Amino acid sequence: MSRWQYFLRRVLMSIPVVIFGTTITFALIRLGPLDPVSAILGTQYNPQAAEQIRTNLGLNQPLWSQYLDFMYELFTFQLGQSWVIAPGTTAYELIEIYAPRTIWLGFWSVLIALFVGIPLGFYAGLNPNTPSDYVASFGGIVWRAMPNFWLAIMLVTALSQLGTWTNGLFTWQTWIVRTNVVTPPALGFFQSPVEQFLADPGGWTESFIRATKQIAPAALVLGSASMGNEMRIGRTAVLETINSNYVETARAKGVSGRSLVWKHIFRNALIPLVPIITGEAFLLLGGSVFVETVFAINGLGWLFFNAAINGDLPLIGTLMFIFILILVGTNILQDFLYTIIDPRVGYDG
Amino acid sequence: MSTTTETEIPLRQRVAENPQPALIWAAVGAVLIGVELGAILQVVGAVAGVVVNLLPGDPGASAVQSLQAAFDAVPTLVSRDVIPNQGYWNGTGYENTFLGLSPAVAWVIRVAFVYAYAFAVLAWAWNGYTRFRRHYRRVDWTPRDDVVNRFRGHSWGKFGLIIVITFVVMAVFAPALGPTTMERNILQPYDYEVTYWSEDTQSTETVLVGEANLGSGSQGAGDENVAPLTYDDYGRFHPFGTATNGKDLFTQVVFGARISLTIAVVAMGIAGLIGLGLAMITAYYKGLADLATVLVSDSVQALPVIMVLILMLVIFQNTWVRELYDGAVLIILIFSVVYWPFIWRSIRGPALQVSEEDWIDAAKSFGQTPTQVMRKHMAPYVFSYMLIYASLSLGGIIISVAGLSYLGLGITAPTPEWGRLIANGQQYVASPSWHISLVPGLLITLVVTGLNAFGDGIRDAIDPQADTGDEAAATGGGA
Fold it and tell me: Which domain of life is it from (chain B) (predicted)?
């Protein structure tokens, strides 16, 4: 089977996966012991309003027709609206408001993890069994074992107390630009960035730096698990490549050290890192609930959590569908990267 | 099938021919178990009580109760009664403590004693294995010996094992380890009294435990804080300080270890059984069974784990399942449902490989049923791969449970849980009461590091060439 046929098969397989995953969500929401209507109404339950909502949501219809409606609407991207946490607001509007903060957070946490984890791992792999290798490896393992929400709490405290600890020499709040430790990032500069930048380059840069500084601690925490993973896998991958025959051959024919590291070791060591990097999508989505809660960033994770505890089941169904699409999309991206990077893909099955 | 050869002498006969090593081992074992007989019988009684409760009509409830009373009377060496620490200062010396020592010292002695006993039992079990290997085993060498030897040479894995054992002992002996009991300090504080030495009146006085708790909470300010390794105003020793509500943190932490480890191990066990069973079926029948399982497991894996956990806990919030053991049963069930696809995925390859082996064909042509083939000839080869994956995933479950409890969705009061303790002390991290959040978090980090190290050791011991597989799953979806 050629590489691209293999890739195509993986893409086709993802269609039933999305359908099935959405079906599981439907089953949980509509067949579970929690009645959507009483969840929406909560303590203000009255039969009239209940009947109204029931009709609105189509809950009077037979189950199979509810199911078909649910699936049809989601797959044609008629995403419905919120019923409890922002009644009447459409899911589109909510996602437009909340998603940018999570994307900003996710972007930086992937970037920080990549630019700290991989170099550290490669460094440890290139200098195996030295004290610096032990420090880096052990640090990575412990770093990865820390629960995100706890790490977030500790980091918030540390940053807030930094001024007191250093006797006012260094305070996080006033460093470079003035920000609070626990705050949602101000992403105003994000709208029509080109015009804003042209109109006021200094101001735009400052708001960019401010938003980055606001998100940095949260991104560091959210990326912690991935950073540890990338370090571990990076180290093993480098160790394996260093000891492989082709590197031996390259060294024997006189390839320079720099070229050896970059062309022969680095590129091949990247292959096992691909699933770790794309697997971050799972960690980021799950972790965003905790990190956004601690850092008071009202993003998608925060939205999902609040929709869940307030019983906004219609909105939850929609969000779950979006998350499934994101995760399946990342899986496809992973297969795509594999297909490009590793010519061996597809040959064994 | 069975042709008896000379080497196949039953174990009983082999022991009878050379009884000395076995007898010594059994004698030591009898002593070790004998001193703990009371505790073992109490556990049996408690289990019987639960079983009777579950049966309709509670048959023989009174018999079980009298049995429990009889069991309680059997003395136990490793218990609070032998080394009591809950005494008080009477102006000249300590009363009701072990040898009249201070409560802190008495408590330290008891903890040391519990761990010494636990490690003695483990050493005895290990010694039993080596004796069996040296004196009674039919063959000199089995492949499993190599696994054991590789693990013994794996210092990182051994480090993990020691940490894991430390926490398991903490969970098993939780009632004996705490400076006070769950019942007295946490569940029914207003049913018990504490005697203490009052500086004002220069005499001993008594107060309800609940009221003493109110006066010894850790809420930031200097006089409203009971730091780790200090006494509160009522002469009670707190190794980890107190929580905001004045309840002893160490007692809550050890019982938190109990619930966390139980959930992780049981959930992983159930998920492992489902995964292993399905792997056998899909590897044996292949084709449609395999395709259907791929589809279902891919779909479950495409769901964000933490979000599904939150959603399911919300959906089941007012049901009877949620009430069982403060939510632990429901959480175990949810984790089993969510985790089996990961297990199945990790052993699908090895299972398919085994099913292609010649001995499977041979077994089939001997007329063995599919279940026999799967159980006897396939499962043992796949089991070790499952063990690798499961041991690497336990830490993720512990972190997730703590995270959910932190959000207020996981284990509910009164059962103590690490994540809830962290939430409890969150606003005091920067104050003198930093210990409430810090200690449980450090313990989670330690136990997860230990589990991961142990898992690495198992992996390297079982299969040095093994691919780690899905690393992301092992961190619990980012909680």
Answer: Archaea
CB A113 within 8 A of CB A227: yes
Contacts for B291-296 with beta carbons within 8 Å, 24 or more apart?
B293/B344, B294/A13, B295/A13, B295/A16, B295/A17, B295/A20, B296/A20, B296/B341
Question: Which residue among B307, B403, B438 places its CB closest to the CB of A147?
Answer: B403
Is B178 exposed, middle or buried (CB count within 10 Å of its CB: 0-12, 13-18, 19+)? buried
Tell me, yes or no, whether B257 and B242 share the same domain: no
Q: Which residue of B has its CA nearest to A30?
A: B315
Quick check: B407 and A290 CB within 8 A? Answer: yes
Q: Tell whether B12 is covered by a domain.
A: no
Conformation bin of residue B243: beta by default, left when phi > 0, alpha when psi is -120 to 50 = beta
| Residues B269 and B206 placed together within one structural domain of the fold | no
Do B232 and B370 belong to one domain? no
- pLDDT, tens digit only, all 349 positions of chain A: 677 888 888 888 889 989 998 998 998 888 878 777 877 777 777 888 888 888 877 778 888 888 888 888 888 888 888 888 888 888 888 988 898 899 899 899 988 888 888 888 888 888 888 898 888 888 888 888 899 999 999 999 888 888 888 887 788 877 877 777 777 887 777 777 777 777 778 788 888 888 888 888 999 998 887 888 888 888 888 888 888 888 888 888 888 888 888 878 887 777 777 777 777 777 888 888 899 989 988 889 999 999 988 888 889 999 999 999 998 998 888 888 877 777 666 554 4
Considering only the beta carbons, identify the residue of A17, A229, A305 that sits closest to B407: A305
State how many domains chain B has: 2
For the stretch B185-240, pLDDT in tens is 888 889 888 888 888 888 888 889 888 888 888 887 767 888 888 888 888 899 99
* Chains A–B, number of C-beta pairs less than 8 Å apart: 185
Is residue B165 in a domain?
Answer: no
Inter-chain CB proximity B303 and A24 less than 8 Å? yes
For B3-61, write each residue's pLDDT tens digit.
Answer: 444 556 788 888 888 888 889 999 999 988 888 888 888 888 888 877 777 777 667 77
Distance from the Cα of A200 to chain B's closest Cα (Å) equals 39
Is there a single domain that holds both residue B308 and residue B453? yes
Same domain, B268 and B380: yes
* Min Cα–Cα distance to chain A from B290, Å: 14
Domains, chain A, ordered by start? 1-85+310-349 (no CATH), 96-300 (1.10.3720.10)
Interface of A with B in 113-132 (CB under 8 A): none
Task: Say if CB A311 and CB A34 are below 8 A apart.
Answer: yes
Assigned domain for B365 exists: yes
Among candidate residues B216, B247, B278, the one where a domain is terminated: B247
pTM score of the predicted model? 0.88
Whether B299 and A21 lie within 8 Å, measured CB to CB: yes
Q: Does A153 touch chain B (CB under 8 A)?
A: yes
Tokens of B121: 């039992």
Residue B340 and residue B379 in contact, taking contact as beta carbons nearer than 8 Å: no
Q: Concatenate the DSSP letters of all residues of B36-102 into one string.
A: THHHHHHHHHHHHHHHHHHSTT-TTHHHHHHHHHHHHHS--SSSTTTS----EE-SSSEESSGGG--
Three-state secondary-structure class, residue A297: coil
Same domain, B219 and B276: no
Tell me if B89 is assigned to some domain: no
- CATH code (residue B264): 1.10.3720.10
Contact map slice: A 192-251 vs B, CB within 8 A = 222, 225, 228-229, 232-233, 236
Note down the domain range covering B443.
253-474
Q: Which residue of B has its CA nearest to A319?
A: B307
One domain for residues B237 and B257: no
Residue B306 is nearest to which of A144, A289, A316, comparing CB atoms?
Answer: A289
Containing H/E element for A123?
A: helix A91-126
Smallest CA–CA distance, residue A87 to chain B, in Å, is 20
B278 and B422 in a single domain? The answer is yes
Task: Identify all chain A residues contacting B403, using CB atoms and an 8 Å cutoff.
Answer: 147-149, 290
